[in-house]
């Protein structure tokens, strides 16, 4: 199964989370994505798990989850499917 996203090089610099997603470096202010993550200690921030599917990131010490699609502003819509009789 192909992963949703390829996530690498996740680290923090001050109030910014810097990571490489699908080959592109992203720099995001933590206060713009999560007040919990923004207030977290350095140890809490660097203790994370990337989902094997590449769907998201989980910080177990603060019980915080961030979906990569949401981080990138990707919105999914349900396609209406017609039922044929």
Provide the descriptors you would attach to this structure in a database record.
single chain; 85 residues; alpha+beta; 3-stranded antiparallel sheet; 6 strands; globular; disordered C terminus
What does this structure look like?
The longest helix has 5 residues. A hairpin with a 5-residue loop joins β4 and β5. It contains four helices and six strands, in the order βββαααβββα. Strands 1-2-3 form a three-stranded antiparallel beta sheet. It has a three-stranded antiparallel beta sheet with strand order 4-5-6. The radius of gyration is 15 Å and the shape is globular. It is α+β, with helices and mostly antiparallel strands. The C terminus is likely disordered.
**Weakly predicted, low-confidence segments:** 80-85
Q: Radius of gyration over alpha carbons?
A: 15 Å
User: Would you tell me the structural class of the helices and strands?
Assistant: alpha+beta
How many runs of DSSP E, i.e. beta strands? 6
Largest sheet: 3 strands, antiparallel
Strand fraction equals 25-35%
Q: Element order, helices and strands?
A: EEEHHHEEEH
State the share of residues found in helices, binned by percent: 10-25%
Report the span from N to C terminus.
33 Å
Counting DSSP H or I runs of 4 or more residues, the number of helices is 4
Mean pLDDT: 88
Shape: globular
Strand order of the largest sheet: 1-2-3
């Amino acid at each position: 199964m192909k992963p949703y996203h390829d996530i690498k090089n996740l680290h923090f610099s001050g109030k910014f989370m810097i990571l490489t997603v699908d080959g592109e470096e992203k720099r995001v202010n933590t206060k713009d994505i999560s007040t919990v993550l923004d207030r977290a200690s350095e140890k809490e921030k660097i203790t994370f798990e990337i989902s094997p599917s590449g769907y998201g990131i989980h910080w177990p010490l603060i019980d915080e989850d961030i979906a990569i699609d949401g981080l990138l502003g990707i919105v999914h819509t349900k396609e209406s499917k017609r039922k044929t009789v």
